[in-house]
Specification:
162 residues; mainly alpha; two-stranded parallel sheet; 8 helices; flat
Length: 162
């Protein structure tokens, strides 16, 4: 049976990554908060990217869930934060049995990759999430998350507790 796996990312973080890639492709990089604010406010580009990101996520979720085929939704942030658990969810979803040797290899690989990434990621990064939320508008960000959560719950992708 055909199954779908959708890995999605926090729309605000996805927007920031997309915005950054656009800047890099144009040959410019934003080094300071002031540069980011000026660039983000030019032609409301950050707001447009954010809205397009949310719209595309909604369309994709509706399209995949309407197929009637099993769908597993995994968040990129969950994978980064706890990859072994997400890999176990994935293994279970695709219906594979994982013996102890396979799981050991997977977890060793995950740990090795995490150590390597930690060594490579030593430079200080500018955290732009708060500023981006201010530029896009906290109400827009909050409402977009509310729409995504409500849609996910309505499609049975997540379960909300009252």
């Amino acid at each position: 049976m055909e199954k779908f796996i959708m890995v999605w990312r926090n729309p605000l973080l996805s927007t920031l990554a997309h915005f950054h890639m656009q800047r890099v492709s144009k040959g410019s990089s934003l080094q300071t908060l002031d540069e980011f604010i000026k660039a983000a406010n030019d032609d409301n580009s950050l707001q447009r990217i954010f809205q397009n990101t949310v719209d595309e996520m909604v369309k994709m979720m509706k399209r995949l869930s309407s197929s009637g085929k099993p769908l597993l939704v995994i968040s990129y942030e969950d994978m980064r934060g706890n990859l072994p658990v997400q890999l176990l969810r994935l293994i279970h979803f695709i219906g594979k049995d994982a013996d102890c040797e396979t799981l050991d290899r997977v977890f060793c690989t995950v740990q090795s990759e995490a150590k390597m990434a930690a060594k490579l990621n030593t430079r200080h990064k500018l955290d732009l999430t708060k500023t981006a939320t201010e530029i896009i508008g906290e109400r827009n960000v909050t409402e977009s998350f509310r729409v995504l959560v409500k849609l996910s719950a309505g499609l049975g992708l997540i379960h909300l507790e009252n």
